[in-house]
Amino acid sequence: MRPIVECIPNFSEGRRPEVVEAIAEAIRGLEGVRLLDYSADQNHNRSVFTFLGGPQAVLEAAFAACKVATKLIDMTVHKGEHPRMGAADVIPLVPVKDIGIEECVQLSRELGERIASELKIPVFLYEESATRPERKGLPNIRRGQFEGMAAKIKEPEWAPDFGQAEIHPTAGAVAVGARAPLIAYNINLDTPDIEIANKIARLIRERGGGLKNVRAIGVMLEDRRLAQVSINMINYEQTALYRAFEMVKYEARRYGVNIVGSEIIGLTPMKALIDVAEYYLQLEGFEASKQILENHLL
Amino acid sequence: MRPIVECIPNFSEGRRPEVVEAIAEAIRGLEGVRLLDYSADQNHNRSVFTFLGGPQAVLEAAFAACKVATKLIDMTVHKGEHPRMGAADVIPLVPVKDIGIEECVQLSRELGERIASELKIPVFLYEESATRPERKGLPNIRRGQFEGMAAKIKEPEWAPDFGQAEIHPTAGAVAVGARAPLIAYNINLDTPDIEIANKIARLIRERGGGLKNVRAIGVMLEDRRLAQVSINMINYEQTALYRAFEMVKYEARRYGVNIVGSEIIGLTPMKALIDVAEYYLQLEGFEASKQILENHLL
Asked: What is the model's pLDDT at position B61?
């Protein structure tokens, strides 16, 4: 048993490469942590890092990255298209292996406590770590953004979970929480009509009476002249990828539209694709934990 | 880089549990080796073991198991339905990770040499390790079985690759060799007519003008009253599982027969199922080595 946690923190810096590199270095510098990927977006002025490791190592790395961001990012001069409320904006912790969501909730509390006490940044617990229903969703917490947070945090119902009811003058506030792994999954249609993608997105998502655990919007791929149904699969174990694929396929049919391809953005747990293979091959009695060679190597 | 080899030795004992256990213990006793599975068949009077580990550890474990089998199995009194020529009958070595087939060929030569010199059992190299074309296939080497081997091995063209041209009086001879991973894959039809399964098997296999790297026969599942196309996928990277599945589906159609399900017997590398998911989801630009989380944990 070697528990592994994934951390995907978002920082409010996507234009100064030296700041992004400094955050990457802080993560890389921690033993037992593996930085898998990071990328910066100029329009959003935001960067996302993905790293893995044991629970304590991940906590140390997330804290170290947060500390560097606090030192180098000044939210009073930050501009960007993506909503944000802090230098370290959101720090999700995801159980990957030999660890449950409850332990990640506990880990998020430890991390939040440490950020509040050592860096003097107020912390909101979100998603599975949320202490009240209205704090489950990040958009709700972040509403008002950095600029509105100074006032919002003084309202009793928006008192932070850790730290004083006062934003950090330059680093704002941060959301920390455990969440289930999420798969970013896009399905491309053979039409340039974004309205068709929008209609399909509304039909397939949970909010629209479609699949549970599915969030979807229509997106235009300008360069390919294709409309795309852009999906977040927020619980691929309960709602497998092939179900979104098949539902998009049959909803598209009413418009005489076909799927030209699909894409997984970023990381996916192996099991999400094994489930797809099991479905299409009509596999009987398959036991992934025993029968997949790599499961014996992990 | 941590090279991993799989070894799946077959021993001529499937009726005396204490002998099967003694072989299992010999494998388990070696550090760095993991015994994943073993099973004994009474009718065949034969047992199969699957274990993994680094090259040297696997060599030691295979040798240790072979030594125990040599001590406890007497081929002069062995009876069983499966063809066999030795107490340790065949020892395949399969590259799993960070190791190539060539290195497994070299490993099989080391193992063969040691078995011949220390246990006095003549060794034939087979499959990728074969020193002559007619020794590539095991059935060719094994023809005549234990009872015929005493005479066969004295023919110049059947001189063993290691050891004297003389069988071990009670342990016979053994085949050792490297081979690519193989997937045992069965497809079940909604008919009890074995002849339909036979016809489909003949059409889809390489020998019958079908798919390269596919061996297939028809088999009757008496308990389920279903006919099955029983397949060995001998190179799943070149010929993916979904291609056999789709070919069986369309060949079955001419008989008005459908697939009710399929089965993977034993182990499969993850990639074989990822390829299936990629095909059916029409995935674009998917990079398994980067995008599958578990590939970062191995």
From this structure: 98
C-beta of residue A263 within 8 angstroms of C-beta of residue A184? no
Q: Which residues of B touch A (CB under 8 A)?
A: 4, 6, 34, 36-37, 52, 96-97, 181, 188, 241-242, 245, 259-264, 266-270, 273-274, 276-278, 280-286, 290-294, 296-298
H helical segments located in chain A: 17-28, 55-72, 101-119, 138-142, 145-152, 194-204, 241-253, 270-280, 288-291
What is the per-residue pLDDT across B86-141, written as a single tens digit (0 to 9) for each? 999 999 999 998 999 999 999 999 999 999 999 999 999 999 999 999 999 998 99
Rounded Cα distance, A4 and A96, in Å: 5
Q: Cα–Cα distances in Å, from B157 out to B134, B219, B273?
A: 10, 35, 42
Mutation target vs B (from A282, A289, A295, A298; most B CBs, 10 A cutoff): A282
Question: What's the pTM?
Answer: 0.83
φ, ψ dihedrals at A200, nearest 5°: -65, -45
Distance CA B162, CA A97 (A): 46
Structural domains in chain B, CATH included, are: 4-178 (3.30.990.10), 183-296 (3.30.70.670)
**Are A267 and B6 in contact (CB < 8 Å)?**
no
In tens, the pLDDT along A101-115 reads 999 999 999 999 999
Task: Give backbone dihedrals phi and psi of A180, rounded to 5 degrees, phi first.
Answer: -70, 155
Model confidence at B298: pLDDT above 80: no
Is residue B43 over pLDDT 90?
no
Task: Read off the DSSP letter of residue A130.
Answer: -
pLDDT of amino acid A46: 93
DSSP A213-262: TEEEEEEEEGGGTEEEEEEEES-TTTS-HHHHHHHHHHHHHTTT--EEEE
Each residue of A150-207: pLDDT tens digit?
999 999 999 999 999 999 999 999 999 999 999 999 999 999 999 999 999 999 999 9
Does A36 sit within 8 Å of B267, measured CB to CB?
no
Q: How confident is residue B44, by pLDDT bands cut at 50, 70 and 90?
A: confident
SS3 state at A59: helix
Residue matched to tokens 């063993």: B160
Instruction: Give chain A positions within 8 Å (CB) of B274.
Output: 270, 273-274, 277
pLDDT value at A298 more than 90: no
Mutate to test the interface with B, among A236, A270, A275 (most CBs of B within 10 A): A270
| Cα distance between residue A26 and residue A9, in whole Å | 13
| Catalytic-residue membership of B78 | no
Burial of A108-123, coded b for 16+ CB within 10 Å and e otherwise, reads bbebbebbbeebebbb
Task: Give contacts of A282 with chain B, Cβ < 8 Å.
Answer: 259-262
Contact A286 B264 (CB under 8 A): yes
Q: Which residue has the tokens 């081929």?
A: B75
Per the CB < 8 Å rule, is B263 touching A285? yes
Q: Distance between CA B60 and CA B49 in Å, rounded? A: 15
CA distances from A169 to A77, B160, B165, B240 (A): 11, 81, 86, 58
Q: Is there a contact between A283 and B261 if contact means CB atoms under 8 Å apart?
A: yes
Element (H, E) at A74: none
